[in-house]
Amino acid sequence: MISYDKLYLGGSWVEPSDPALLDIASPHDRALIGRAAQARLADIDRAVAAARAAFDKGEWRLAPPAERIALLRRFNALREENAERVAHLISLENGSAGWFTRAGQPGLTRQANAYLKAAEEFGWEETLLPSDPASPVRSVVRREAIGVVAAVIPWNSPFSSATSKIIPALLAGNSVVLKVSPETSLSMGFLAELLERVGLPAGVVSVLPADRETSEYLISHPDVDKIAFTGSTRAGRRIASIAGEQLKRVSLELGGKSAAVILPDADIEKAVAGLKFASLLNNGESCIAQTRVLAPRARYEEVVAALKELVGSLKVGDPNDPDTFIGPMIRPDQQQRVRDYIQLGIEEGARLVVGGPQIPAGLEQGNYVTPTVFADVDNSMRIAQEEIFGPVLVVIAYDDEDEAVRIANDSEYGLSGGVWSGDEEHALAVARRIRTGTVTVNGASVAFDGPFGGFKASGIGREYGAVGLGTYTEYKTVTV
């Protein structure tokens, strides 16, 4: 059993204000796998005070960018050296299948490398020549750290969510209080161990598992200058309202209900094989999952049959089993939520193609659900509009390309999506018409140099690369 009885606060392991430890249960069989201290309001006050003192002192903020880059490069190397440990802990806590947590490790490297490259090329200070040659004034434009960053992340992909925020925030010279979900206290405790080994100045970073009430206290704290959040749209709206009242800088990466548009000339076999990963990654507990499959009416039943065969063949079970593709949901309430949505789909009149609300046989001791596909779905149905956050796909028919684009855009969300076609240029033309922050063509992987984020209710701001780094800076203009 793994235990973290102290909190990583301001660069040191300290006694929590509340000595009670939270029991962490395995999603696979609900057995006890660890215990961890949880931050309370007094701990938030200490962490923010340490962050503010470190920022005001300026040791990290005023260090040359090359020094900050070197330390964050060291952190990335440490994480790479411990990739197997990271993958194991995430599977242990989240129930994420081992194939997914291991496959995600190179992505963490690419994500960090993109930030490091951006920092090396970033315009930290630039001189602008006057637009009027007769003017004696020149402008020095600086990009400076914002201050104390409250980074709040969810449980479903903890390392990726954490590093997508702390790496750019620290590269820019900010201090960071990272608030993590109680469910991921163990993997995030290990993240804190890696950060400790890097040797950041005192006070610059804290990693605190805490509940929602404590999270709201953190983001409302008067000494927090910027909020960086990944999570539900509902929580994002609340955070945005607090940020608006206090004029804090804010970036929000929120929910999604992404569409996969299969064009008439697509290779159905290849498209469905790609959707195995694009739609069902991380047990379906992913904001970017392409869970609305849009199929041309002339090939509709072909797509439905292919998805039935694929989803029906997926092995559901122990995340540690190398043959497992779908593991358990993280908590019993999330398991029940997904099962309720499947029952709702039946009640809404959708055709149940494969799966259903029943728990998979032999897996009743864990938080398991049966991967499910619905056909004959109208885009107005709740199962087509609401984020289920589980392995549930809906297949929607369209008559022509204009209708496919209209259906893809008929959502309050706009985070991700995909287009599948035998003609890449045609697919790119369709992708340009879809109102979403990220679109992949024929299952292309994420490009970490490009910005990532959402339209509409899927968020505000962008992460990754130079654009993501820039969200942790303020502009200052000095005229001379």
How many strand units?
21
Lateral arrangement of strands in the main beta sheet: 15-16-17-14-13-18-19
> Quick one: overall form?
globular
Largest sheet: 7 strands, mixed
- Mean pLDDT level: 97
Give the percentage of residues in beta strands: 15-25%
Question: Please, could you describe this protein's structure?
Answer:
- The protein has two domains: 2-254 and 457-479, Aldehyde Dehydrogenase, Chain A, domain 1, CATH 3.40.605.10; 259-448, 3-Layer(aba) Sandwich (Aldehyde Dehydrogenase, Chain A, domain 2).
- 40% of the residues lie in helices and 21% in strands.
- The protein contains 15 helices and 21 strands.
- The protein has helices at 41-57, 65-81, 83-94, 98-121, 158-171, 185-198, 212-220, 233-246, 268-278, 300-313, 332-347, 382-385, 401-409, 424-433, 465-470; strands at 2-4, 7-9, 12-14, 21-25, 32-37, 125-128, 139-145, 148-152, 175-180, 205-209, 226-230, 249-253, 259-262, 292-296, 351-356, 370-375, 392-398, 417-420, 440-441, 459-460, 473-479.
- The strands form five sheets. A seven-stranded mixed β-sheet has the order 15-16-17-14-13-18-19, with helices on both faces. It has a six-stranded mixed β-sheet with strand order 10-9-8-11-12-20, sandwiched between helices.
- α2 runs antiparallel to α4 (98-121), α3 packs across α4 (98-121) and α4 (98-121) runs parallel beside α5 (158-171).
